Amino acid sequence: MTRTVDHGTAKLMPDLDRPRAWLLTVDGAPQSYVDLDDPGHLEFEYARRLAHVLDTTGGPGEPGAPLDALHLGGGALTLPRYLAATRPGSRQQVIEADGGLLELVAEQLPLPPGGAGITVRQADARAALEAAPDASADVIVADVFGGSRVPAHLTSVAYARAAARVLRPGGVYAANLADSAPFTFLRSQLATFRSVFVELCLIAEPAVLRGRRFGNAVLVASQGELPVGALARRTAADAFPARVEYGAALERFIGDAVPVRDEDAVPSPEPPGGAFSVG
Q1: How many Cβ atoms sit within 10 Å of the Cβ of residue 55?
Q2: Are 44 and 75 in contact (CB under 8 A)?
Q3: CB 24 within 8 A of CB 31
Q4: Which residues pair with 84 in a beta bridge?
Q5: Residue 36 has pLDDT above 80, yes or no
Q6: pLDDT digits (tens, 9 = 90+) for 44-81
Q7: Is residue 270 part of a domain?
Q8: Are 102 and 122 in contact (CB under 8 A)?
Q9: Which structural domain, as residue segments, surrounds residue 179?
Q10: Which of 47, 148, 216, 245 could join 250 via S-S bond, C-beta 3.0 to 4.6 A?
Q11: E strand intervals along the chain
Q12: Quick one: which of 187, 206, 182, 178 has its CA closest to 255?
């Protein structure tokens, strides 16, 4: 199925190996993969890494208790469905700027009856973040791409401060980013969030960190202690193992990068031809 949405052309393609699984692309760039029968199945490696962050994020009550989550960027609601399945009772708000995409997903990939604690709203991610109440979320997941680039207004110190304000004490911010050597964008993002948050780590495949190819990296930040050991064990056990950079190693990676101001912000780099495209 192909449909024109607000920000491009969306296509839903079935996975022939899984009866109710679908790949969503926008202008040829993969946006989401969702299995309606098995929301715990995560096809994209970066989604698995974000899921590891969700799995290891604490919250009120016992380990594995429901979370209050704010998702910036909706796609096919892959991670909200995952969290609803793995931590039932979680309250989740999803912000997606593309109303046409939201309509397509609601029609073709509906949520379970009752919504599973997931509410979806059309809005700009930063505007919604800045309007959110103080200390209202245990976790913020940012997976916002305009086409295949992170919008500039979601990269600055002011944006990071808004995220810190919305998180509860010990809450976690996790963002899907993409870059390649010399990592000008990624290093600037780490410097930006380091200027606001006490704890920081980065999850990425070794080949990406060594500059061998363009790829995704997950930035994780908190004012509390991050579960770096648990994240390292989980990501190392993935089909495509990743590494967790933290502490002195992360400081060396950041180098002389400086925080980004709103007036200097730029989108993430355009992926090289064919890096993420799907026919």
Answers
A1: 17
A2: no
A3: yes
A4: none
A5: yes
A6: 999 999 999 999 998 665 667 999 999 999 899 999 99
A7: no
A8: yes
A9: 43-260
A10: 245
A11: 2-5, 8-14, 21-26, 29-35, 68-72, 91-96, 118-122, 137-142, 167-179, 199-204, 215-222, 243-246
A12: 187
63 located within any domain: yes
Specify if 86 maps to a domain.
yes
Strand partners, 11: 2, 25
Indicate whether 147 pLDDT > 80: no
CATH of the domain at 224: 3.40.50.150
**Total domains present in the chain:** 1
In a domain, 194, yes or no: yes
The beta strand positions in 44-103, using DSSP E, are: 68-72, 91-96
The widest CA-to-CA distance across the chain, in whole angstroms, is 50
Residue 33, CA distances (Å) to 46, 181, 253 in order: 11, 27, 31
Summarize the chain as % helix, strand, coil (round to 5).
30, 30, 40
